[in-house]
Every structure is written in structure tokens, then in C-alpha cells.
Amino acid sequence: MVGAIALTAPVPSVASGQDKPSATSFAVIGDVPYGAAQIAAFPGWVDRINAQPGLDLAFHVGDIKNGSSPCTDDYNAMIREQFDRFEMPLLYTPGDNEWTDCHRPAAGTYNPLERLDAVREAFYETPGLTLGMRPMKVASQADFGFPENQRLRTRGVEMATIHVVGSNNDRAPWTGLGYTTPTSEQLAEESDRMAAAIDLVEDTFARARQTNARAVAIFQQADMFDPSYQPTWDLGAFQPLVQTLVDEASGYDGEVYLFDGDSHVYNVDRPVAAGSRWLGIYGVQGNADNLTRITVDGEANNTNFLQVTVNRPGAPHVMTWERVPYDSQS
Fold it and tell me: Is residue 21 part of a domain?
């Protein structure tokens, strides 16, 4: 499937277009702002991230609101205004709360596919550009209807944002609209979007092998390996992506990092390493010991942002990170 969905722009580095030997760092947040108090605090949190020395990029891994507040155009515009205040390029990949779950009565009883269009109009009107005060060119799948799927290279690391969300990647029934099973339109959208995400993952790993990249980093909303998993949960939509990650990571010599949100509790693990219970849960073949998953704090736990450092060549690991409290001094 490599190359089945091509990218629409060259893949640049963060700074001058050339990888540099110095370290760089980026911020990761997700599942924020949730509710009135966090909405009021969010501009100050953006200011705090802007004040942190050394940040070259920022990522928001989805859920720009909670699941029980209205999914309005005005809300999207308000968040976009804050996103444009980031002084570094910001890459945002959508979560389920801003479109998938908008069928809920408390969220406005919207058709989720209409809200998906609204999210794309609000945040991706200029394909191939990040958000932020100083947008950066990135490669994207905009020509195929997925402008949110983006890829870039920095300091010898291939990075990609893929649109994969909770609620079983939008296979959960839209009960707020009276459905007890997924609609045909819903399933078709999910299938196309997952295929695009898998294509981008495969393309990113292919490029990493071609360029001898030091690492691959993937950013998405859905926590496919939620530690609170119950056997009654339907995770079937994620199985093809989990298998792809195992296949690609196990055939790659560098380090692999998967950043996500969704479950709201900071967590670091290796969910597809040999012996992991997730291999059986998903019924995947093989394993990948070189893939590290990092979940960022969200919802009530969102008192910090994650600062990730891409270390100089020769360091024990390509990436290291720390949680930086919003109320700390830069």
C-alpha cells in the first residue's frame, strides 16, 4: 500500500530545510480544553508553552472540547484563534469529541460527518501548512480529502499525524440520532480514513528506511492500548492499524514513538512488544519491541504539557521527554 495515497508537498525540516546536529524539542498536548474553567485558562497555557525555551514545534493530539458540550462553528473558531497564537508551528489531528461524538444530545445532535467537514474547514483551509503564528509547509494527503494527515522530517526523524479517533474510530453507533448500528455512510467514511492513515504510516516508514532516519514518530488521538481496557469494548476498527505498526516497526532498525491522548492519563509503555497482552487482544501477527507509546495527560489531568527532546546523535535514545507544569516558570 506504500504510495497508494501520495503526499502533496515536499517534506521539509523544521528550520532551514537541512537536518542539524543540535537537539530540538517540541510540545505535545491533547484532550484540552475541557469545560469552562479550562477554556478560560487555555490562552494562558498557550502563553506558557510559547514561553518555554527551545520549542520548535507543537502538536495537539485531538479532543479540543469535552464530549458533552455543543459542537458549534463558533467553538471551532475560538479554538482556531488560540491555535494561531502558538509562536511555533502547530500540527493538530482531530479527536472524537469534535465530530464523532457530536450526535449526542448534549453535544447538539449533529450529524458527525457534517461536523467532520466543519472541522476540516475550520483548521485545514490551507492544505500543506501547519497552524500557528509562523506556519510551516508540510506534506499532506489533502488532494485525497485528508488534509489533517500530515508528514514532516526534523533532525533525522520522520513524523506523521494520522486521523484515528476514539469511539472505535467512529464505528460506534450514532445513538443520539436514533441509530443502534453504524450507518453505511459512517462505515464507508471510517474505512476510507483508516486506509489513508495506514497508507501514511507505510509511506512514513518507507521514507525512514530510504533516508536512514533515526526514528519514526506517529501522532494520533485514539488510545488503542488503554490500560483500563475491558473485554466488552469493541476495538475492531483499530486492528488493521495495529498490525501495520507491528509490521512496519519490526522491519525498521530505528526507534518508533506513538504519541496519543484519549484516555487522559500519562502513560508510557511498549504495547506491541513480545509478550504484550495487546498482541492477543488484537490478534496481530509478530511483535515490535522498538515501539514506545506515550499518552499525554488530558481532561482534569491536563495540568502540564509534554516537552519532547530529539537528542543529538549518539545519545542513548533518540527522544526523551518530561511533563512541564503550566504553573512552572520557564
Answer: no
Instruction: Let me know if residue 87 belongs to a domain.
Output: yes
Whether 294 contacts 267, CB under 8 Å: yes
- CATH number of the domain to which 155 belongs: 3.60.21
- The mean pLDDT of 25-53, rounded to a whole number, is 98
Q: What is the mean pLDDT of residues 45-49?
A: 98
* Rounded Cα–Cα distance for residues 123 and 81 (Å): 10
Q: State yes or no: pLDDT of 22 exceeds 60.
A: no
| One-letter amino acid for residue 45 of the chain | W
Q: In what order do the strands lie in the sheet with 139-141?
A: 139-141, 146-154, 157-161, 215-219, 255-260, 291-295, 267-269
User: Has residue 279 been placed in a domain?
Assistant: yes
In a domain, residue 204? The reply is yes
Total domains in the fold of the chain: 1
Q: Where are any strands of DSSP class E within 80-235? A: 90-92, 139-141, 146-154, 157-161, 215-219
At 260, list the grid cell. 496519543
Q: Is the pTM of this model over 0.85?
A: yes
pLDDT at 256: 98
